[in-house]
Amino acid sequence: MEESNLYQTVRKKFNVELSGPFGDRFEMKPAWKHAYYNAAKKNELGQVVLTESKLPWYGLMLISLFFGVLGLLKGHYPIPIGAGIVFVIAFLLAFFARQRSLIFDKTGVIASDILYKWEDFDGAYIVIAGVQKHPKSYLVFSRDEQPLVYINVSSYGDQSTVATPVRDFQPERYRASV
User: Fold this and answer.
1) C-alpha separations of 128 from 44, 140, 163 in Å
2) In terms of Cα–Cα distance, which of 112, 84, 86 is closest to 99?
3) pLDDT at 177
4) How many Cβ atoms are within 10 Å of 167's Cβ, its own excluded?
5) Whether pTM exceeds 0.70
6) Residue 129 CA to chain centroid, in angstroms?
7) Of the ranges 42-46, 85-89, 94-98, 125-129, which one carries the lowest mean pLDDT score?
8) What is the DSSP-derived secondary structure letter of residue 128?
9) HSE of 172 in the Cβ direction (CA atoms, 13 Å)?
10) pLDDT, tens digit, for every residue of 113-149?
11) Which residue from 59, 34, 50, 134 is spatially nearest to 99, judged by alpha carbons?
C-alpha cells in the first residue's frame, strides 16, 4: 500500500521500526486482498462466527503434564506441584473462561459485544505488525483516511480467515475506495 495519510497514522500507532534488530514488520492492505478464494461458511442466521483458538491452553496443559510426570519420575516433588498448578489454571481457562468471538453479517462486525456497522466506515484493512516470527494481526476500520477502530484478530486464525468474511459482507464501496 502506498504511504497514504491512513498508512502513516496506523504505522505511527504501532510505532514499528522496519530496521529493528529482529526484522520488525509492518504491512497494511485492504482486508479483501487477504481473503481466501471461496466464501466463508455461514450459519443458519447468515452470519460467519469466528471463535478464539483454545490451542495455546491445550498446549500449556500438555507441557505442564509432561513436566509434572517427569518431576515425579525424577523425585523432584516441587516440579510436579508447580506443574499441577499450571495445569489446573490452563484447564480452567480452556474450559470455563468466556471464549471471545467475531460475528460478521450484512450489518457489520460484532466484537466484544460491540457492533461496528459497515455503513459507519469507508474501508477495512488488515494490519500485520510486530516481530517477524510472532506478528500481531489487526482488523482496522477507517473513515475519511483516519483509523477509527483497531480489533486484534491474532487469535482467530490467520489473517485470511478474518479477511474472507470481511470481503463477503463489506459494501462494494470499500473496494472502490482503494
Assistant:
1) 32, 10, 12
2) 112
3) 61
4) 21
5) yes
6) 12
7) 94-98
8) E
9) 0
10) 899 999 999 889 998 887 767 788 899 999 888 888 9
11) 50
